[in-house]
Amino acid sequence: MSNEVLRTIRERRSIPRFKPERIPDEILHEVLEAGRWAPSYANLQPWEFIVVRDEAVKARLSEIVEKVTIYRRGVQNADVVIVVAADPEVDPLHYREDAAAATQNMALAAHSLGIASYWIGIPEGGPSSAEALTKELLGIPDEFSVVAILPLGYPDPDYKPEKDRRPLEEIVHWDRFGNTRAL
């Protein structure tokens, strides 16, 4: 495939294991820029990115995400963890989708720059939820929604992610649900 964007999309995989190597600030800046340039409803950009490098904070985040993923160690071992939050007051209808688009942009940019990531979705929840505990730990205002946590690091070369995807003829429906066929 000659298209760089499509190749990046096809090659990116969730990698929860990292080498103990620091990501240069220039690369981190590019990843964050990719998030900033994500599409959002009416260009409202309701997202905020909290960059975590502090080892103690990453260790606590690792404990918190155990509520929503089996890959908690990757949070602690990542060089950088980006927490994506969104303000529903900026866009009450689309803030979660917009923040998800920003997260996807950052994951794709990271991959294109040789950095591994894996997306941890954070569902909205009550007082003891992963979302509430993340807000408390990072000082995120109560009215915000924590949408995702994105650990970043150089990939562990021994980790082999799944590569299979469902065929298009199973997931594409023509004109109404249930009408599937090959292209």
Q: Could you characterize the architecture of this molecule?
A:
The chain is α+β, with helices and mostly antiparallel strands. The protein has seven helices and five strands; from the N terminus they run H-H-E-H-H-E-H-E-E-H-E-H. The chain has a single domain, classed as 3-Layer(aba) Sandwich (NADH Oxidase), CATH 3.40.109. Helix content is 37%, strand content 14%. Strands 1, 2, 3, 4 and 5 form a five-stranded antiparallel β-sheet that branches. Helix 2 packs antiparallel against helix 5 and helix 3 runs antiparallel to helix 6.
Under CATH, the topology is which?
NADH Oxidase
CATH class: Alpha Beta
Q: What is the N-to-C succession of helices and strands? A: HHEHHEHEEHEH
- The oligomeric status of these chains comes to single chain
Q: What's the shape?
A: globular
Low-confidence runs of at least 5 consecutive residues: none
> How many domains make up the coordinates?
1
Helix content: 25-40%
- SS-derived structural category: alpha+beta
Number of strands: 5
Terminal-residue CA separation: 18 Å
What average pLDDT do the residues reach?
Answer: 94
